[in-house]
Structure formats: structure tokens, C-alpha cells
């Protein structure tokens, strides 16, 4: 059942690359935040692919817990980034 | 036959994930990019389900696609719509931010190289014998952990210190948002249809949050998914233009925000006083302590995610007159 | 027997999903596309859930599946209504 | 004594919650927490000095399953520096923020930052390091944007995005390590790691992420605006502690966990980047118009010196010479921490009292703010590396190591860097001691100037004259 694991892991690498490219190239802040979230999703896919042990066998629970923690950390970072972007736009309109 | 269809399903699922990710990042229209990102999050939740990770699928759908999507949409909604919608293709050659072609190709090659080395290393890692040290240790100690769902056991018992710091990260984010200013003005009061949905949907969401919290001990679920469901109820109320969205006022709000980290720390330190290691629950009480911590964490996560959606500290609803609160024109 | 019945239901459901998607791509304006999507996909989901319910072991799962269907019904109907109202409002303004 | 480790994380976290829940008496509680945490750090240092490296398994689970906290000589020293710098900056901040609303927003975030620093320096688990790095990044960004001015918010947002990119790279490395070795605990990893594609790729990913966070030369663009536009106590801690925590991780990974995997070529690359950082940072500091920008660029330069040690430590065979060089590296890091914090606090006093911090219009500050100018001079002594300061001992070991391993280029870079450092410090002092007669009598702001003076004195005199125990403590290794 290694092929499924490898298939998902390779897709994870592709998504990490897409996210990194987007994060470095985009000018608008919102799209850069979306790109970083996409890159995070790619890394999480790596972790979940590592945890997968095959269709019948129970997967390894540790990466699942790590990804859960990662998702919550990612959403809090996104929330702060969006608040900073909002404050920046508000400042731009004033002056 | 069965593995054949599974491979076809995997292929299609992964293709759609990569296509959605690429489409979301290729467009220069922010609105399209955010909506495609939400679709990407939902299809990703299907992928987690496929890889037998139901807890993560729940969290990805609720927090990854749901709440992050709501936050991003609220941010896009506030941004002034570009006057002349620049069609995405003519700005293609000039690049999203005017970078020359050389830089764009350099970054593409750099990311491709990163993906290549990552894949090369991963293939090497997978070829060596899979290390089962930790999964066996987890299933071995599961009985003493107080819960039967291994993911919750890892999150709330074996690696409880990680979750404590992660709740502190959530608290830091919302304190950072508070220091940047007041909440965004509310939304137009909803029409009859949306109001009808809210009347029916919000109680179901609250019940679901309670169920998710309870079921987390022995099946996929837990404090994070429950907190996200509760926050979703608040977001729906906010979108329906309600002024009271279930958040307490002033010092009560601060208590709820600090509840998650506070209860966790209190339990950890009191165990220390009883001679146990820090955060070392005695097996007899482990289940009850974990439920206590998860309840406080759920309330804290729900309040924090909702305050993040609000964009800051809500004015104390008592004194706010409807006239003073400037409403957005666009009704949802 | 149960398997044949549930696979028929699931196939019918998938067919309606396909119809909804084709409707989304082919139909000319926003309203008809909303129409196609909401109707076909909800019916497809209903059939899919009926097919799955036959497979599930206990009543609790069936009730949970039903709750999913009701929630999706309400959510897609309301959002279709809101999108249509918003589009109508923008037409009258411009 | 191991309870001191738990205290170092639990105390500031409890203090953050207390200042959040009781905003009116936030300042007194914050200073109390700061004192308690400093005492805990002292206890830990004493414990490590007497009983050797300490180890605590959280929740009682074995290191593989649960998370282990570890404290050896290096982390105990850095924890002590963090505690002293943060305590001094807390006393300074209690007088710096006059608006009550600003104070109530400042203290919880400040103590969360301190929790993150302590948790990072104590953690012995890779994923736990990722979470502490995120907590550190977010609290630093929230504090940097506290001023609310446009420049501060824009710089904080860029700092956050760069920090997130770095954390994602670090997490990719961590997941690769888990895929390859099946464990996240640093101790078990140290004897499992062997050269191979997994170890090389994981190390380079984690190092890239950390270099983004420690702002080494090509990746330093976000640091000057972020540190220059933050409030004074925040920029002091950002420059002295936050970037150093990321450097500590690079040190822990390269010389500890992945010692067998690191190749001389990679170490020389780090050294080269460090050299560029030294030259570029010092040059830009010399041209900076504002004091805060100069101090921020000087941080980029001083971090460059620390990376110069990597090729030396790789080339030196294990023995007394290598231990001396390692001691020099730690002493240089500690001295820069104290000196830069003192410098930023002193600049904060000038900015508040004179309303600006442009270097050209500084004349007369020597008469008007004598204590502050003296603090800047003392911090300058430590930044340049003149004899009585700890930096002198550190740079001396750097030169001795360069000579011993015939790597003369680092010697040249250190000399040019020190000359440039002297240039930009004396330029400031030159302006400060302007000959314009000043009629008003001098102003002293006790609660703000004392912390700056003590920190600068610690760097210029304390670590130089009493630097010997550092080497003794570094013998204690995990």
C-alpha cells in the first residue's frame, strides 16, 4: 500500500511548491496569505501521508494530532495577518 | 478490482486538489482566489477522510476551509472592488506585481527545486523500514490515557504541553487583533429567508458542538472541532446582522478568552502540587480532567475565532445605539 | 438485494449531480444556473444518502445522514435565494 | 530544582493571564511576574551549575511519546540573559507607556513573548519547537504593531509573512524527520541521525526556515523596518532575544543533533553569509539617518559575527581549542544581547524626550541627557568589542580560532566589521557631544535610564571581567 502513501506525499510536495511560488510572487497581501495557507496544507498532506499505514491498518495517530495543532496555529496566524492588512488599508484611506 | 477503483479515485481527487490550488494561486482576482481556496480546503477534507484521518478532516472542513474562508471573505468584502476589473490574462505577461519574467521563472524554478528535493528525500524515507516506535507506544499507553480516541489521547494527554502552547498562540493572535482597533461595523439585518435559516441552524450548531465535544473521547471529534462549530454559529448570527451574537461583555469576555489556557495551566500546576509530574493526569481521573480542559478549550477557541471574525473588540453592546453603529450597505 | 437497491440509488444520485454540473456549465444566465445547481444537486444528494442509509448498520447513522441532507438543503436553498436577490438588486441599481 | 524549568514556562504564562484578567493592576502584577521568572532562571542556572544538565518529562511520559524539557549549560545561560534583559525592559516599559490603554494591551502580549522564549530555550522536541517558534513570531508581531502607526503595521505585516514562511519550511523539515526516523525527540534523534538524503534535506529546510527568522544576510530585509518602528522596549527584546532564539536553534541543530551530518562546505556557506551580513549590516548602519535604524542594522551585523564561528567550530578538532571557541561564541551572543537591549532602551529615552532620533540633530543630548548618552557609549563599547567588554573576549576567540585553522578571511572580515562598528558608534557620540552651549539643567528619568545603564554596564564590564564561568558552564552538555 506504499503507492497511495507515495502518491499523496508527492502531491503534498507539489502543493508546497505551488504555495511557496504564490507566496513569493503575489503582490496583494490577501493572495500571499492564501498562498501561505496552501503551502501549509501541502506540509500537512506530507504528515498525513506519512501516517497512512494502508487500507486495513489503523493509521499512526501522532501526525494527525500534529496536523490538528498546525491547522489551529495556521488559522490564528491568518486572522492576525488579515487584521494587520485591514489596519494597513484603513491607514491608507486616511492619509 | 477494489484497489483499481481506489487508485482511480485517488488520481481524480489529487488532480482536483492540485488543480484547485493552482487555480486559486494563478488568478490575480482576489475574490476568485479566496473562493477557490475554500473549495480547495473542502476537497482537502475529503483527502484526509480518504487517508483515514477523520479528526483532521473535521478540523480541516470546519477551521481550514470554513473559518479561514469566512475570515478571508470578510477581508475581501471590505476591500474596495477594483474599478476596471483587470482581466487576468493581460496582466499575465507583466506578472501579478510587475515582476520581470526572469524573477518569475527564477521563483518557479526555486519552488520546483524545493519540491524535487523534498520528494527525493521522502521517497528515500519511505523506502526504509517504517518506524512503528511511536504508534505502538501510543496504543500501549492508550488505556492509561483516559480516552479511547488515540488522536485525542495524543493531543490532550501525551503531548498536552503542545496543546497548551497552541491555545496560547490562539490567545496571542486575538490579543494582537484587539490592539489593532475596534471590531468592523456589523452587517445589514437579514431578510426573512436568511433569518428563518438562522433561527433553525444556530441551535443545531450549538447542539452539534456539544456532541462533538462529548464524542471526542472515543470517536473523531474534540475541543477544536467543537469550538469551530460554536464559532460558526456566532459567524452566522453576525452575518444575519444580529447585535447579540453570544459573546459576553467586558471582563466576562476576557475570562472566556483566557479560560482555555487558564484551566489547562491550573490543572497542570495543581497536579504538580499533588506530587504528580506537570500535566501528568492520574489514570483514574484522566478522562474527567481531559473533559474539563476540553470544555474550557472549546469555549475559548469559539470566542477567539469569533472575535477574529469580528476583527477586534466589540463595542459593549449595551450602550451601542443602532444609529451609531454604521451598517454596511451590502446585505447578505 | 440491499446492495443492488443501494447501488441503483447511488447511481441515480450521481446522475443528478452530473446533470447539475452540466447545467452549471451550459445554461446561459445566473438564475437558471442557480436553479439547476440547487435542484439537481439536492436531489442527487438525497438519493446518495438514501443509498448510503441502506448500508449503514444502526439507526443513529441513518439519522445523522438525514440531518446532513436537511442541513445541505436549507443551506443551499438560502444561499441560492440570497445570491439571486443580490443579483436582482444589482441589476435594478445599475 | 527541575520545578524551576516548569516555573520558567508556567510563571510568565500565568502572569499573562493575570494581566489580561485584571487590567487595572496589570503593571504591578507584570513586574512581580518578571521578578519571579528571573528568580526561577537564577535557580535553574544554579541547579545546572551544581548538578549538571537537567531533564523533565512532561506528563510523566517517556521522551519518545511525551515532550521532554532539557536544560544544559548553553540554555541555562541564555535563559538567564533572557530573564535579565526582559526584567530590565519590563521596568523600563512600566514608565515608557503612559497611556493606560496601551499598557493594558502591552503586558499580556509581553509576558506571552517571554513564555515563548523560555519554552523555546527549554524544549527538547522538534514539533514543540515549531509551536514555540509560532508563539514567538505571533507575539513579536503583535507587539511590534502596538504603536499602530502605518510604518509599524506595514513592517509588522511583512515580518509576520516572512515568519510564517520560515515556520512552514521548518515544519516541512520536521515532517521529513518524522517520516525518516519516526521520532521527534532531539535526544533520541541525535544518535539516530546519519548522513543521507533525509538528514541533509531536513536540515537544509529547517535551517532555511530558521535563517529567515534570524535574519541572516540575504534574508534580513524585514528586520530593520520592523525593529526600527516598534516601541523601544519591544525593539530591545526583538533585537536582543527573539532573533537570538532562532540562532540558538541553528546552533543546537548544527553542533548538537546533526553534528555528524554537517559538511564543511555547508559550514563555510554559513560563514560566508555571516561575513556578508557583517559587512553589509555595518555599512548600512553607518549610513542610517535614525538611531533606531542604525541599531537594527547593527543587529544584522552582530548576528553575522555569530555565524562566522560555524566554519571555525567545524574545522577545530574536539579539544580545549574548540571549547574556547564555543565559549567565545556564547559570550559574544550574551554580550550582544545585553548591549543591544541597553542601546535600544537608551534610544527610546532620547526619542521620548527629544521627540526625534535623527542622528544629525543629536547635539546637546550629552548635556541634556547625560545618563542616556553614557549608556549609549557603554553599549557602543560592547558592540565594537573594546577590551573590558565580553565581546572583546568573544572576538578574541574568533580571531584565535581563525588563526588556528588558517581561515584568514574571517579574521579580515572581523577587523573590517569592528572598524565599521567603531565608525557608526563614534559618529553618534560625536553628534551627541555637540559643543553648542546648553542652558537648561540636565534631565534624568530614573525608571527609564537605570535599566538601560545596567544592561549596557553588564555588557561592557560584567561579562568581560566575570566571563570565566561561561566556559565552565558550557562543559555541561546534554
3D structure, described in words:
The complex is a heterotetramer of chains A (95), B (332), C (94) and D (478). Chain A is mostly helical. Chain A has one domain: Helix Hairpins (Orthogonal Bundle). Chain A has helices at residues 2-25, 29-51, 61-94. Chain A is elongated and about 60 Å long. Chain B is globular and about 60 Å long. By secondary structure, chain C is an all-alpha fold. Chain C has one domain (2-93). Chain C has helices at residues 2-26, 30-55, 59-93. In chain C, helix 1 (2-26) packs antiparallel against helix 2 and helix 2 runs antiparallel to helix 3 (59-93). Chain C starts with a helix and ends with a helix. Chain D has a two-stranded antiparallel sheet. Chain D has 19 helices and 2 strands. The model of chain D has no long low-confidence stretch (mean pLDDT 89). The relative contact order of chain D is 0.10. Chain D starts with a helix and ends with a helix. Chain D has a domain at 263-478. Classes of the chains: A mainly alpha (95), B mainly alpha (332), C mainly alpha (94), D mainly alpha (478). At the B-C interface, helix 8 of B face helix 3 of C.
- Percent of residues in helices of chain A comes to over 70%
Unreliable stretches covering 5 or more consecutive residues of chain C:
none
What is the oligomeric state here?
Answer: heterotetramer
Mean pLDDT of chain C: 89
Indicate the CATH topology of chain A: Helix Hairpins
| Share of helical residues of chain C | over 70%
Distance between the termini of chain A: 60 Å
Order of helices and strands of chain C: HHH
